[in-house]
Specification:
Structural class: mainly alpha
Largest sheet: 2 strands, antiparallel
Number of helices: 10
Shape: elongated
Number of strands: 2
CATH class: Mainly Alpha
CATH architecture: Up-down Bundle
CATH topology: ABC transporter transmembrane region fold
Distance between the termini: 40 Å
Length: 382
C-alpha cells in the first residue's frame, strides 16, 4: 500500500510540474524542438563529416578543394548547434521557467491567504515558506532536466542507432539493447533511493521551519531564557538531517560506482570492436571512427542518466509537500460579494473561554473574558 501511495505521489508531482507548459506553450515547445535539432547536429551529423574526411585521408585522396564541403558542413553543424541553437534554448528556458514560477508563486499566496486561521495555526510558517521555495526551485530544475538531460539522452541514442543501422547494423542493435538495459538498471536502482531522498527533504524542511519559528519568536525566547533549550533542539534537527543526507549519499555512491563500471565496459568493447574490425578488414577507418565516436557520445549521455534520475528523485522530494498542501480543500471560503454588517446594537461576550487548536495537547489560555461592542474590531496576536 505504501509503495502504491509513493508511486501515486510521484505521478502527481510530475503531472503538476509538466502541466505548467500550458502557461508558456510557444517558448516551451520551441525550446524542445531546438534542442532536438541541436543535439542531432552536434552528436550525430557532425561526426559523419569527420568520418568521410578520415576515409579520404586514409585513401590518400584528401585535398582542400575536394574536402571543402566536408569542412563547411562540419563547421556549420557546430555553429548552428552550439552557438545559435544552444543560446536560443537558454533564452527560451529563462522565459518559460520564469513565467511558470511566477504563476505558481501567485497560486501559492492566493491559496495561503484564502485558507482559515486553523490551517495556519496547525503549521509552522517557516515550514510553509521552505516548502514554497523548494517547489519554486523544483520547477526550474524539472524543466532544465528535461531540456538539458532527457532530450539529449533520448535524441542521441535514437539518432545514433538509426545512422549506425545503415553502416553496421549488428553493432547498432547491440548498442541499442545495451543502452536500454543500462537505463533500466539505473532507473530501477535510483528509484530505490527515492524514499531516502524524500526523508532527507522532510528533515531539511523541519530544520528550516524550526529556525524560522525561533527567529520569529525571538522576543519570547529571550524573555524566558530559552536560548540553550532551542539550540539543543535545533542541533538534534541538524543531526537528523545530516544522518538522512548520509543515508542518501551511501545509496548514490553504490549506484554511481556500478554505473561507472558499466560505462567503462562499453568503452572498452567499442575499442575492442574497432581493433577487430581493422584486423579483419571489416570496415574502413571512417566507419571505425564513426562507431567509436558514436559509442563515446552514447556513453556520455548514458552517464547523465544517473544524474538525471537522481535529480528527478530530489525534485519529487522537494516539490511533493507543497503540492500536497495545494491539493487540500480550503475549509472556509470567503464569498465573492460579502454583505455589509447591519448590526448596530448589542454586544459579543466571551466568558471563561478555554482556547486551543487541533494537534495541540494543551490549552493556550483558560478563563478568557472579553466583551466586543458594535463596530469594534478585535484581533488575536500570538
Amino acid at each position: 500500500m505504501s509503495e502504491l501511495k509513493k508511486q501515486n505521489s510521484s505521478k502527481k508531482v510530475i503531472k503538476f510540474l509538466f502541466n505548467l507548459w500550458k502557461i508558456s506553450p510557444l517558448p516551451t515547445w520551441t525550446m524542445f524542438t531546438a534542442q532536438i535539432i541541436a543535439v542531432t547536429l552536434n552528436m550525430t551529423v557532425a561526426p559523419i563529416f569527420v568520418s568521410q574526411l578520415l576515409t579520404r585521408i586514409a585513401n590518400g585522396t584528401a585535398n582542400l578543394d575536394g574536402s571543402i564541403w566536408l569542412l563547411t558542413g562540419y563547421a556549420l553543424s557546430l555553429v548552428v548547434s552550439i552557438v545559435i541553437l544552444f543560446n536560443l534554448i537558454i533564452g527560451l528556458s529563462y522565459i518559460s521557467e520564469n513565467k511558470m514560477q511566477s504563476a505558481v508563486d501567485e497560486k501559492i499566496l492566493h491559496y495561503l491567504v484564502s485558507n482559515s486561521l486553523t490551517f495556519h495555526s496547525n503549521r509552522m510558517s517557516g515550514g510553509i515558506v521552505s516548502d514554497t521555495n523548494k517547489l519554486i526551485g523544483s520547477i526550474e530544475r524539472f524543466w532544465d532536466t528535461i531540456v538539458f538531460n532527457i532530450i539529449p539522452i533520448t535524441t542521441t541514442i535514437t539518432t545514433v542507432c538509426i545512422v549506425l543501422s545503415f553502416i553496421f547494423w549488428q553493432y547498432a542493435v547491440a548498442l541499442a539493447i545495451l543502452s536500454l538495459i543500462i537505463i533500466t538498471i539505473v532507473v530501477f536502482a535510483q528509484s530505490r533511493i527515492s524514499p531516502v531522498s524524500r526523508i532527507a527533504a522532510d528533515k531539511s524542511s523541519k530544520k528550516t521551519a524550526y529556525l524560522a519559528d525561533v527567529i520569529g519568536n525571538i522576543s519570547a525566547v529571550k524573555a524566558f531564557a530559552m536560548e540553550k533549550v532551542e539550540l539543543t533542539k535545533y542541533k538534534k534537527l541538524i543531526n537528523d538531517w545530516r544522518q538522512a543526507e548520509t543515508n542518501e549519499m551511501k545509496g548514490v555512491t553504490k549506484v554511481t560506482a556500478t554505473f561507472g563500471l558499466m560505462m567503462t565496459i562499453m568503452n572498452v568493447c567499442a575499442f575492442t570492436a574497432a581493433v577487430v574490425a581493422t584486423q579483419y578488414h571489416i570496415a574502413n577507418i571512417g566507419t571505425i571512427y564513426l562507431v567509436i565516436s558514436y559509442t563515446l557520445n552514447v556513453v556520455s549521455q548514458l552517464w547523465d542518466v544517473s544524474n538525471t534520475t537522481r535529480s528527478y528523485i530530489r525534485i519529487i522530494g522537494d516539490a511533493g509537500p507543497m503540492i500536497d498542501t495545494l491539493e487540500m480543500d480550503i475549509e472556509i471560503k470567503d464569498t465573492e460579494s460579502p454583505e455589509k454588517s447591519k448590526i448596530c446594537n448589542g454586544k459579543i461576550e466571551f466568558k471563561d473561554v478555554c482556547f486551543t487548536h487541533n494537534q495541540n495537547d494543551d490549552a493556550l489560555f483558560r478563563q478568557f473574558n472579553l466583551t466586543v461592542k458594535p463596530g469594534e474590531q478585535i484581533g488575536l496576536i500570538g
